[in-house]
Here is the input.
Amino acid sequence: MDELGGDVVVAARRLLGCEIEHTVDGVALRGRIVETEAYHQSDAASHSYRGKTPRTAVMFGPPGHAYVYFTYGMHYCMNIVTGPAGEGSAVLIRAIEPVSGEAQMRHNRRDAAGVLVTNGPAKLCQALVITGAQNGQDMRSGPLRLIACPAVSSSAIVVATRIGISHDTDRPWRFYLRDNPFVSKR
DNA sequence: CGGCAGATACGCT
DNA sequence: GCGTATCTGCCGT
Here is the structure.
């Protein structure tokens, strides 16, 4: 998807409605992106704010790769790297709606019921078996893929402030599909 | 159902 | 040392 190489906010909106698929042991675990957040180098909430480090190096790499980080001692969260190589920007995937492999996703989540299976950034990583092993992977091909989609119309997108951060909290850089039940928080 | 504490390990200061 | 782009269970209303 060409738009990933441009502005991270444009990319965050553009990724809504597109799908992520991780094939694990021959089973395609696939979901539609319903909630995203943009993170940019100029932004104190971003891991890339203090420059390139071993942990954040992937954010400064080419667009379309996965940036997976480990947090709170137990959770993984996944991003899709955006912007030109050299710029530290990425879009956090905060929620997806299952499309295929839903039974396996629920199993991976200790049989979570209803929207609880994928309605949060760490939950969807657990459901899709995304860990540090996927960090840096090119999502244009391979077992972890991004599947492009037509752009979602602006009227279907809700703009909000980002969740769980303590710096630059006022940026309207969170986007989600209006009325989608898998969105993490209204 | 809303609020809060606890879990738990890693990167960076 | 300290803070963390979170989740879950447990408590009270």
